[in-house]
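Hi R.,

Here's the input for the cytidine-5'-triphosphate complex you asked about:
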Amino acid sequence: MLCAAIVVAAGRGSRAGEGLPKQYRAVDGEPVLRRTLRRLCAHPDIAEIQVVIHPDDATLYAQASAGLPRLRPAVPGGADRQASVLCGLEALAETPPDLVLIHDAARPFLSPALISRAIAAARDHGAAVPGLPVTDTIKIVDEHGHVISTPDRAALRAVQTPQAFRYDMLRAAHAAAAQGAQAGLTDDAAVMEWAGHRVMVFAGETENVKLTHPTDFAAGPARAPLTDVRTGTGFDVHAFGPGDHVMLGGIPVPFTQGLDGHSDADVGLHALTDAVLGALCDGDIGAHFPPSDPQWKGATSDRFLAFAAERVRARGGVIAHLDLTLICEAPKVGPHRDAMRARIAEIVGLAVDRVSVKATTTERLGFAGRREGIAAMASATIRLPDSED
Ligand code: CTP
Ligand code: MG
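And here is the predicted structure with cytidine-5'-triphosphate in place:
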């Protein structure tokens, strides 16, 4: 079943205080919206993502979404969340998906497992939302603050996103609510309830908070300290062949020859990918992208490195540093070094001052010295959450 995601990011974040709208503020050095989108892009069962933005935020959005795959052009939202969701649903109408997830831009900590649960629940139930049992006792009060009643806590759920639906059902319900001037519904489950549909609640996640108030940004969410520091190394060689450029460190470098290989033969990115996988003890590039598999023929190697970086994030970790050494007599690396660093940093989502590219010759000795090919070695330092053992 084809599944799309809509990310609503058209709000102003008025409760989050002065400054940029909250979805564009940085958490751990990365805009909230980018973190949200990366999580959704990386999920194999989400075919495309429709982001809904505020018309004033086009530049901020272009920066926050640069280089991410499977994003449709953003569309402008409406006056409230309900209106913004309808804008996203209408944008998907020409090529309607079977299922749609609606997610708040302001919830950047959703896990791959939560996305999988949402998709499965939509497939099985047509309308489903993640929820958690509440820990506080909830009171219903009147306008003076006097308690009217105390609902049974066992029956209460605090509901989150991604909320997951059959696309046609949700679109019809939202269109009917808009036509019937039924505004002010604060989530999509409420729209479906209003339209008379049954909505199922599946298990949400405590980490999946909606960043709302200034303190949510000041403190950041509580997370395990990243004290499990590891280093991995990688090495790769490709031979020269016919061509007029080589892919090296993620960029095309004009040259009198090309590099032979099943993929684009970017020896530098291959060594870096193996270094990251090595630090994770997670096999090597050939185990994840077998050369025997025709789908990797001619593949650009940025996807291999992006995959390895996502494996670090999926373990709750970060890449601290990457160091690449290219070994060849030619082409000259120096003039391209900073472009390579910038591209590698972009692929893995790291600051450029954490990426090093160096080069050396072998004094005309060996295969590199005879100009038969290029070798690359790399190291990656990563930090993972401290494990119990
Ligand atoms: N949202 C939207 N369009 C609106 C209002 C909200 O797309 N007109 C989005 C927000 O960007 C957010 C999500 O809906 O990702 C949940 O809304 P909320 O947390 O209330 O965000 P804001 O409305 O931006 O914040 P506030 O209510 O504090 O102004
Ligand atoms: Mg709001």
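One thing worth noting: The pocket of magnesium ion (ligand 2) is lined by residues 11 (CB under 6 Å).

Cheers,
M.
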